[in-house]
Design brief:
Blueprint lengths: L1 H28 L7 H21 L10 H24 L2 H10 L2 H9 L7 H17 L12 H15 L1
Helix pairs in contact: 2-3, 3-4, 3-7, 4-7
Length: 166
């Protein structure tokens, strides 16, 4: 039974990673082809996420009124992450935008460490070190390559970072 649970978790993580990569790729490919811009793309993403939710929960859906506030907050932050992530991709490099958005998961990590007083282990320190290293390596410019980082991009990326981390 334990091996089956691990296999399901691994399969679920692979689907999530594939979906996130596909979402970022579609964002970049559709930047000049959409009539409604970032909002249309975000609404489409939310619609497909809702379809997946309905498909997975149709048989055993339960709802607690207590979680409504968290659900609304999550939905708002998810919308912020999608809209400003799309705007950041449209106004700057895809690679750095995706990295910044992915690095936002440091927010719940620090929340756990400082607010919930969870213990920090060796792997956490190694992970933070590798995170810093990735920031350095992504900013190394290769011959002939220019990364266009503007103030507008930085604002959009920061809002995407906060929405995704929240």
């Amino acid at each position: 039974l334990r091996g089956g649970v691990v296999l399901v978790n691994v399969f679920s993580l692979l689907i999530i990673v594939f979906s996130l990569v596909l979402q970022d790729t579609v964002k970049k490919l559709s930047q000049n082809k959409m009539s409604g811009g970032a909002m249309t793309f975000s609404m489409g993403s939310i619609f497909f996420a809702f379809l997946v939710f309905l498909t997975l929960s149709v048989s055993n859906f339960s709802f607690s009124l207590k979680t409504l506030g968290f659900s609304v907050l999550f939905a708002a932050l998810y919308c912020v992450a999608l809209v400003f992530g799309m705007l950041a991709i449209l106004s700057g490099p895809l690679s750095i935008t995706c990295l910044v958005t992915s690095l936002s998961l440091i927010i719940p990590t620090f929340y756990g460490l400082f607010v919930l007083k969870e213990p920090a282990g060796f792997s956490l320190y190694v992970g933070i070190l590798l995170l810093c290293l990735s920031l350095v390596l992504i900013n190394v410019e290769e011959k002939g390559e220019k990364k266009k980082l503007t103030f507008k991009w930085a604002v959009f990326a920061a809002l995407s970072f906060l929405g995704n981390g929240g």
